[in-house]
Design a protein that fits this description.
44% of the residues lie in helices and 19% in strands. It is built from six helices and five strands. It has helices spanning 14-26, 46-59, 74-80, 93-109, 129-137, 148-157, and strands spanning 2-7, 29-35, 65-70, 85-90, 114-119. The strands form two sheets. The chain has a three-stranded parallel β-sheet, sandwiched between helices. A two-stranded parallel sheet has the order 4-5. Strand 2 (29-35), helix 2 (46-59) and strand 3 form a beta-alpha-beta unit. The longest helix has 17 residues, at 93-109. The radius of gyration is 15 Å and the shape is globular. The chain starts with a strand and ends with a helix. InterPro entries: Cyt_trans-like (IPR004821), PPAT (IPR001980), Rossmann-like_a/b/a_fold (IPR014729). Belongs to the bacterial CoaD family. Homohexamer. Keywords: ATP-binding, Coenzyme A biosynthesis, Cytoplasm, Magnesium, Nucleotide-binding, Nucleotidyltransferase, Transferase.
């Protein structure tokens, strides 16, 4: 069975990697789907984000994961991928309230499309890409939140 784990991953964090690792044990194939969204202004290019995720996957020897990109509706991408399962990580209730509405829309657009939720590991439940970028912008220590490769790339982006 194939699962899709969509997101912007700007940058990928240990929280993202934890979800990917757990999904790779639960499913035959995991598609990490990077959204190309004109409404967001990522600090990393699509290629940079793909490279960081690949590096993290290689460092953890996760082999049943492919990285793909998509624009438009998640439901259409899931149809194209012939997958009926989307996975999302939840850090808390606010995430759930947001995600359940998206899941309902996706299911309305693609009958039978299910969204499953994995609770964040408590060690990572406070980490978000936005928070990591903010700490990095003030030259704070981000080593507990992202891999060495991602940390180096963030330091380069923020000139430290």
């Amino acid at each position: 069975m194939k699962v899709i784990y969509p997101g912007t991953f700007d940058p990928p964090t240990y929280g993202h990697l934890d979800i990917i690792e757990r999904l790779s044990v639960m499913f035959d194939e995991v598609v990490v789907a990077l959204l190309i969204n004109g409404n967001k202004n990522p600090i990393f290019t699509l290629d940079e984000r793909i490279e960081m995720i690949k590096s993290d996957l290689d460092d953890h020897n996760i082999e049943n994961v492919t990285i793909k990109t998509f624009d438009g509706l998640m439901a259409n991408f899931a149809k194209k991928e012939n997958s009926r399962v989307i996975a999302r990580g939840l850090r808390g209730m606010a995430d759930y309230e947001y995600e359940k509405n998206i899941a309902r829309v996706n299911e309305a657009l693609y009958d039978g499309l299910e969204t499953i939720y994995l609770l964040s590991n408590p060690d990572y439940s406070f980490i978000s890409s936005s928070m990591v970028k903010e700490v990095a912008s003030f030259k704070g220590d981000i080593s507990a939140f992202v891999s060495d490769d991602v940390e180096c790339k963030l330091k380069k982006k923020f000139n430290y």
